[in-house]
UniProtKB/TrEMBL annotation:
Organism: Canna indica (Indian-shot)
Protein's name according to its UniProt entry: UDP-glycosyltransferase 83A1-like
Gene3D superfamilies for this protein: Glycogen Phosphorylase B
Family: Belongs to the UDP-glycosyltransferase family.
PANTHER family, alphabetized: GLUCOSYL/GLUCURONOSYL TRANSFERASES, UDP-GLYCOSYLTRANSFERASE 83A1-LIKE
Keyword field: Transferase
GO molecular-function term, one example from the UniProt record: quercetin 3-O-glucosyltransferase activity
Alphabetical list of InterPro entries matching this protein: UDP_glucos_trans (IPR002213)
Amino acid sequence: MGHHQPHALVVPYPAQGHVIPLLELSYCLADHGFKITFVQTDFNHARVIGAASAPSPEKEGLTDRIRLVSFSDGLAAGEDRNHLWKLSLAIKNAMPSRLEELIRHSNEPGEDKITCMIVDGSLGWALEVARKTGLRSAEFWPTSALTAVMIMAIPKLIQDGIVDEDGVPMKEMFQPCPGLPLMNTANLSWNCFRDAESRKKSFQRLSQNNQMRHIADVVICNSCQEIELPIFTHLPRIRPIGPILTGHRLGKPVGHFWPEDTTCIDWLDEQPTNSVIYVAFGSFTMFDQRQFQELALGLELCNRPFLWAVRPDLGAIHGGAEAYPRGFRERIGSRGRMVSWAPQQKVLAHPAVACFVSHCGWNSTLEGVRNGVPFLCWPYFTDQFLNQSYICDVWRIGLKLVPDEDGIVSKEQIKSKVEELFLDEGMKARALVLKDFAYASVRKGGTSFENVKSFVDALRS
Ligand code: UDP
């Protein structure tokens, strides 16, 4: 160990699915004796503090080892933070100099010297800050290894004529790596935005990011060897350290942007084992009003207990608002429960939950996997289509919900796929096997457990 206590500057991409796992990784490092400075945008910092329960020192961002700090994201108040490439450009301009300042300031006498950086895989510019300030750095992908590796492979995809210089597919199918099934190029993460400009800007940003990658001393991802074996066999540079056990830090902020409605756990306690459909679409997905209502009617039609996380803006495409079909609440009564933000970790671990209607964000995917819960997949954008392929085509623990010619997933389809999933015992059995793999990897002697140790050592030395 060096002269100083190890002190990591942790920089997540400012989105919910990045802040949660990076904060949990921070707690994990704190358990290994690190001090942590966790950097967020002012906007998200305020949300995390606002959403945290019970007043406590943690609420002010002062855990014993973890310090939360925040900077402006460079956007004006009221600008749309869901506009991902604009947000990405703004932080790339606004944040590097602030990070450098923070690091240099930490070198002054009496300060806690920052000794290393952990940088989100999509923030290559932050690795440049590590290089300039002479810090060791790790790149962390809160995605599957497959998603990360496809982004790293952009130059090769262009060279092989699979996508063009703007990331637009030239071939329909290709093989991402030996041992994995053929993949549709439309499912590459940058091609999953709905408008062409976002696809192009996202591709450009990821390509630029790639140019900084060599700076990182270590590249890790929130996955485990057993669930993505072909990738780790063929591309050993990225090491899996997951599934990181998010959300199990009692009384500590784990980075949620919305307050969790924990009353639904009492409701779950009253439901029979293996009976409840859990429905949640992460932090970005939006539906137009027609689809939102069709989904509500589909859940009604299933005639089973359900718990549905209805974020305040879930039904907000085209300026709509959450509006349930007429009489919906009365008809479902206590059979269905809607909350604005669920304690998802606890929900998925609950024995009453039978299946997960999910947008297949990577965190949600891993959380379902590590609880042995089969899926109904309804991807929205970015890497969610790749994750759906893992769930349905590789692991075979879920079914796809597919929009019809009108672009709508009908209530009848929802009902029939739910029924099919409940009847398919093979699906559940495979989900339980995968759960065991996931746990084995993080237990003493497991691959992720060992990878955490070597990652921690690499940053400490
Ligand atoms: N989440 C939650 N309550 C909800 C919905 C989501 O706690 O009602 C959490 C979920 O457990 C996961 C994260 O929010 O850790 C969402 O990340 P994911 O990668 O699944 O999706 P994203 O929000 O990035 O689309």
